[in-house]
Amino acid sequence: MTGDGRKIKMYAFTLDCKDPNELAEFYAALLEWEIPFRDEDYVCVGAPGTNQGAYPCITFQRNPEYEPPVWPQKPQAQQQMAHLDFAVKDLNQSVQYALQCGATIAQEQFSEDWKVLIDPAGHPFCLCQMKSVFESPHFTLL
Q: In what order do the strands lie in the sheet with 114-118?
């Protein structure tokens, strides 16, 4: 196979959860993004002013058997399989905003440069102090 037939592009990072609408509303508020598509079992959150598929998005799919991971990991407990990292200019202000959106702060932290938070469905995510990256002209998905 040659040419466009084998081209692979990042479309979405998908998180399982029990209530995709609730979790999508959280991330839409946190990132100030839009919800271009939703149904009972699947919701897409994307950068403002973009069409679904124009940029990678975060999607949320209903999984009635979803169990939140334990963070940090513990033997014999549900393990996280991935997490999202978000660059921020001001870590303290961004953490406060995430808390207002519905996140909680993880009990254990491992760095002064990032803060681990937990979304309403129990997924860990990180807010990372990265002012130089955030302000870079190459960092476009805001």
A: 84-88, 124-129, 114-118, 104-105
